[in-house]
C-alpha cells in the first residue's frame, strides 16, 4: 500500500468479467433445465413501481391500523378545517422585523406578511406540515414553489411562535420564508410524502413536483410495491425473491433498516432527485459528519442533526440494535413505556430482545433501581433517557433525544467543555461538585470512548500531545466510522511520518464516510501525481457519493493527469448528471461553473454563475467565483464594482469584504484594501485565513507590529494553525526576536513533535 509525503506544504485551494460471464451462463443453464422440466419459463420480473397503498391494509391490517393517525401518516396534509391545528383568528405575530397576520376565510387559511420583495401581501396556506409538538404551514408561490412559513403553531401551548425569533430575518436574509433555504420542494417534502420527485424545469424556472401519496407510507420504507402485489396473487407465492419487496427490512439486518430510516432521520445533502429504496444511503445522500457546531466533541448532538449520526456512533448500533427494537415502525411510538424500552435488553438476565443482537457486552444487572441510577424511583432522574439520551430543543419547542447512548461523565465534560446529562440537570450546582459526587458514586473509571473525545478536543484546540493522541486514536480498529472520519479531518494540521500511510489506508476503508474523509485530506498531503494515482480506483467505487468526491478532486488536477484514466469520461458524465438533477439549487450551478472552468468549457462559466445567483442571490460563493472569473477575464474594474455593490447589499458578509480587499490589493488600491480586509477579519475573528491575509497586508504596508500582534492573537485562538505560526515566526525572526521564535517552535514541539517545520529549526 502506498503512502504520501507528510511534509508537503498545505495549500487551500478482467478476470472478474469472465467469472461474471460464467455465472450468467450457469444461471442460464439452470433456468433452461427448470423450464424444460416444468414446461414453461419463469415469469419475468418487471421494474417495481408505486401503487395505491390502500391495497396494503387487506393483508397488513394490524400494521395499517398502527400507521393510521401516526406522525408519519399525517406528515403532510392539505390545509383544511380537519388538518389545520392553528388558530387563524389569532392576533398578528410580531417578530423583531416582520409581522405575520392570520386570516380564516371559510375553509381556507391565509397569512399576510412580507414576501420576497419585502412588501406585505396575502398568501394562501396550501399544506400542513407535522402535527406535534409544532405544526408548520406551506404556502404555494408561482412556479410551483412550496415555501415553509417562519411562523409555526405550538400545539401544547396553543399559540403562534416564530422559528427565528429576534434574529433580524427579513426578505434579505437566507432564512426568510420566501427564500431558497425555506423551499420545501428541495428541503422538506421528500421526507413528508411517499415517492416524491422535485421535477424542476430549469428553462422555465418552475417545479412540477409530484408524489405518490401525502404522508410517509408503506412504500416510503419498503419501496415500490407492485411486484409484492404480483407475489400475493401467485397461488403458491413462490418465485419472487423477498416476496417481491424492493427492501426486506425484516431480514436485512440493522444496517439496512438504519439506513432506510436515515434517509429522513439524518442531516444530509441529496445527490439527485429523489432516492432509490434498494440503494445504500451513500448512493443517494451525503450525510453530515461530526463537524464542530453540529456535534459535541464527544459525539452528542449539538445542532439539529436528527438521529442517524449519533446512533451510528453508539455501542447499540455496533451490537446490531435497530430502530424498530425500540420504536414501532408503523405507529412511531415507543414499543414499551418508560425504562421498559431499555430493560428489554439491560435486565437482570442480561438477555437481548432479539437473538441477532450481539449481547456479549450486556451485564446481568438490575438497571431500573436506585442502586444503578442513584435517584428516587419514578423521578425524572431515574429515567434511562435522562442520563443516557439527554435532549435538546430544536425548532423552538421540539425536544430531540441524543441517540449515541452516552454515559454521563461530568469530570470529562468540565475538562473538555462539552454538554453532560448530570451537569444539564444540576445546572444550579457547581460543576466540580457534581463531578465529585458522580465519582463518589461510581468511582474513577476510564472514558467509555477509549479517549476519543479527549483526542479530538486536543487536535481541534491544538493542545500539547495533540498529534500523538490523534494518531493513536486513528490506529484503533474499533472506532465507529463517523468518529474515524472526524479524526481524519484533523490530519492536515498534524503532518508527520504517519500521516500519509493513515490516509492511504483510509482510502480503502470499508465504510464510505471514511473514504470520503480521506479524499478531502488527500489534496493537502499528496502531490498531484500521487493524488491521481490514489483517486483513480475510486472512480469505480461502489458508492455514488465516493465516486462524485473522487471525480471532483481529480477535476482540480492538471488535465494530463486525469485524461488518460480509464473511467474518467464516465465519471465526469456521472458528476455532471448529479449536478444537473439539482438545477434548482445555486450550489449545483456553482459546482457546474467550477467544473466548466476546470474542464475547458469557459463559455459556460459566467452564465452558470449568474444563473446560480438568480436561483439564490444570497449564495455568496457564487458571487465570489463570479468576481474571480471576471477579473481573470481581464475585467478587473467590473469585478471591483460587482464586489463593492455586493458588499453594500450584504454589509455583514465577511467573505465579500475579504474578496473585495484582495481584489483591491491586486488593483494597487492598498489603503482601501486594508480597510476591507480589516472589516472582514473583525466580522469573522475566528477565520484564520482572514487574519493571515490581513497580517500579510499590514506587514507589507509597514505596520510590522500590528501584523505580529494580529498573528499572535490568531495563534492563541488556534495553536495548531501552521500557516499562522510560520508567518509569525518569519516576521519575528526578521525583527531579531529570536527568543520568541524559539518559544513558538517549543510550543509546536509539544503539539506535534513530528512536524516537518521542526527539522529546519535544529
From TrEMBL:
Protein name: Cytochrome c-552/4 domain-containing protein
Ranges of the TPR repeats in the UniProt entry: 654-687
Transmembrane feature ranges: 16-36
Keyword Transcription found: no
PROSITE patterns on file: TPR (PS50005)
Keywords from the named record: Membrane, Signal, TPR repeat, Transmembrane, Transmembrane helix
Pfam family, one: TPR_8
Domain of life: Bacteria
InterPro entries: Cyt_c-552/4 (IPR023155), Multiheme_Cytochr_ET (IPR051829), TPR_rpt (IPR019734)
Residue ranges of domain Cytochrome c-552/4 in the record: 55-81, 181-223
Amino acid at each position: 500500500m502506498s503512502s504520501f509525503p507528510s511534509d508537503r506544504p498545505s495549500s487551500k485551494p478482467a478476470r472478474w468479467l469472465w467469472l461474471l460471464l460464467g455465472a450468467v451462463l450457469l444461471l442460464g443453464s439452470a433456468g433452461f433445465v427448470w423450464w424444460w422440466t416444468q414446461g414453461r419459463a419463469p415469469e419475468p420480473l418487471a421494474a417495481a413501481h408505486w401503487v395505491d397503498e390502500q391495497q396494503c391494509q387487506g393483508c397488513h391490517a394490524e400494521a395499517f391500523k398502527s400507521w393510521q393517525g401516526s406522525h408519519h401518516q399525517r406528515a403532510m396534509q392539505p390545509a383544511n378545517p380537519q388538518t389545520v391545528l392553528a388558530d387563524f383568528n389569532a392576533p398578528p405575530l410580531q417578530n423583531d422585523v416582520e409581522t405575520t397576520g392570520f386570516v380564516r376565510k371559510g375553509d381556507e387559511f391565509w397569512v399576510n406578511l412580507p414576501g420576497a420583495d419585502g412588501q406585505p401581501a396575502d398568501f394562501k396556506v396550501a399544506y400542513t406540515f407535522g402535527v406535534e409538538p409544532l405544526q408548520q404551514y406551506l404556502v404555494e408561490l408561482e412556479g410551483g414553489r412550496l415555501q415553509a412559513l417562519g411562523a409555526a403553531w405550538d400545539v401544547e401551548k396553543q399559540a403562534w411562535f416564530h422559528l427565528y425569533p429576534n434574529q433580524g430575518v427579513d426578505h434579505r436574509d437566507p432564512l426568510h420564508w420566501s427564500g431558497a433555504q425555506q423551499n420545501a420542494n428541495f428541503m422538506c417534502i421528500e421526507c413528508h410524502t411517499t415517492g416524491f420527485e422535485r421535477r424542476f424545469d430549469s428553462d422555465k424556472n418552475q417545479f412540477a413536483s409530484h408524489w405518490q401519496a401525502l404522508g410517509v407510507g408503506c412504500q416510503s420504507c419498503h419501496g415500490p410495491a407492485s411486484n409484492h402485489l404480483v407475489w400475493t396473487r401467485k397461488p403458491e407465492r413462490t418465485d419472487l425473491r423477498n416476496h417481491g419487496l424492493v427492501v426486506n427490512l425484516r431480514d436485512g439486518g440493522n444496517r439496512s433498516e438504519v439506513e432506510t430510516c436515515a434517509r429522513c432521520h439524518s442531516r444530509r445533502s441529496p445527490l439527485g432527485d429523489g432516492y432509490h429504496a434498494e440503494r445504500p444511503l451513500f448512493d443517494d445522500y451525503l450525510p453530515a459528519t461530526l463537524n464542530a457546531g453540529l456535534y459535541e466533541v464527544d459525539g452528542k448532538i449539538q445542532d439539529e442533526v436528527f438521529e442517524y449520526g449519533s446512533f451510528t456512533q453508539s455501542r447499540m448500533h455496533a451490537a446490531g440494535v435497530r430502530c424498530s427494537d425500540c420504536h414501532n415502525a408503523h405507529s412511531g411510538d415507543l414499543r414499551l413505556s418508560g425504562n421498559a424500552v431499555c430493560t428489554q435488553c439491560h435486565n437482570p438476565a442480561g438477555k437481548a430482545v432479539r437473538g441477532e443482537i450481539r449481547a456479549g457486552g450486556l451485564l446481568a444487572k438490575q438497571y431500573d433501581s436506585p442502586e444503578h441510577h442513584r435517584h428516587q424511583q419514578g423521578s425524572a432522574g431515574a429515567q434511562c433517557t435522562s442520563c443516557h439520551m439527554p435532549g435538546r430543543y430544536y425548532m423552538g419547542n421540539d425536544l430531540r433525544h441524543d441517540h449515541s447512548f452516552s454515559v454521563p461523565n461530568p469530570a470529562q465534560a468540565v475538562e473538555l467543555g462539552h454538554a453532560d446529562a448530570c451537569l444539564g440537570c444540576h445546572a444550579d450546582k457547581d460543576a466540580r461538585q457534581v463531578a465529585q459526587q458522580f465519582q463518589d458514586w461510581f468511582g474513577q473509571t476510564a472514558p467509555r470512548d477509549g479517549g476519543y473525545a479527549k483526542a479530538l478536543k486536543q487536535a481541534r484546540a491544538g493542545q500539547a500531545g495533540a498529534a500523538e493522541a490523534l494518531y493513536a486514536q486513528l490506529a484503533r480498529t474499533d472506532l465507529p466510522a463517523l468518529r474515524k472520519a472526524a479524526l481524519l479531518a484533523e490530519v492536515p494540521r498534524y503532518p508527520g511520518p504517519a500521516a500519509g500511510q493513515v490516509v492511504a489506508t483510509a482510502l480503502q476503508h470499508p465504510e464510505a464516510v471514511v473514504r470520503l474523509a480521506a479524499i478531502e485530506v488527500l489534496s493537502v498531503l499528496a502531490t498531484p501525481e500521487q493524488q491521481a494515482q490514489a483517486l483513480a480506483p475510486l472512480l469505480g467505487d461502489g458508492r455514488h457519493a465516493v465516486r462524485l468526491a473522487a471525480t471532483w478532486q481529480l477535476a482540480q488536477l492538471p488535465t494530463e493527469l486525469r485524461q488518460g484514466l480509464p473511467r474518467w469520461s464516465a465519471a465526469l458524465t456521472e458528476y455532471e448528471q448529479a449536478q444537473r438533477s439539482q438545477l434548482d439549487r445555486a450550489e449545483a450551478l456553482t459546482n457546474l461553473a467550477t467544473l466548466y472552468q476546470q474542464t475547458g468549457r469557459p463559455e459556460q462559466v459566467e452564465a452558470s454563475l449568474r444563473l446560480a445567483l438568480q436561483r439564490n442571490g444570497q449564495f455568496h460563493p457564487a458571487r465570489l467565483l463570479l468576481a474571480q472569473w471576471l477579473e481573470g477575464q481581464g475585467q478587473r474594474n467590473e469585478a471591483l464594482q460587482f464586489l463593492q455593490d455586493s458588499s453594500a447589499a450584504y454589509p455583514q458578509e465577511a467573505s465579500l469584504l475579504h474578496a473585495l480587499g484582495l481584489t483591491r490589493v491586486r488593483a494597487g488600491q492598498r489603503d482601501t484594501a486594508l480597510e476591507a480586509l480589516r472589516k472582514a477579519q473583525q466580522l469573522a475573528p475566528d477565520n484564520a485565513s482572514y487574519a493571515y491575509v490581513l497580517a500579510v497586508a499590514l506587514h507589507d504596508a509597514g505596520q510590522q507590529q500590528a501584523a505580529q500582534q494580529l498573528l499572535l492573537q490568531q495563534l492563541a485562538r488556534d495553536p495548531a494553525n501552521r500557516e499562522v505560526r510560520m508567518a509569525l515566526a518569519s516576521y519575528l525572526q526578521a525583527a531579531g526576536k529570536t527568543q520568541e521564535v524559539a518559544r513558538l517552535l517549543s510550543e509546536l514541539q509539544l503539539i506535534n513533535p513530528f512536524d516537518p517545520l521542526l527539522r529546519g529549526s535544529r
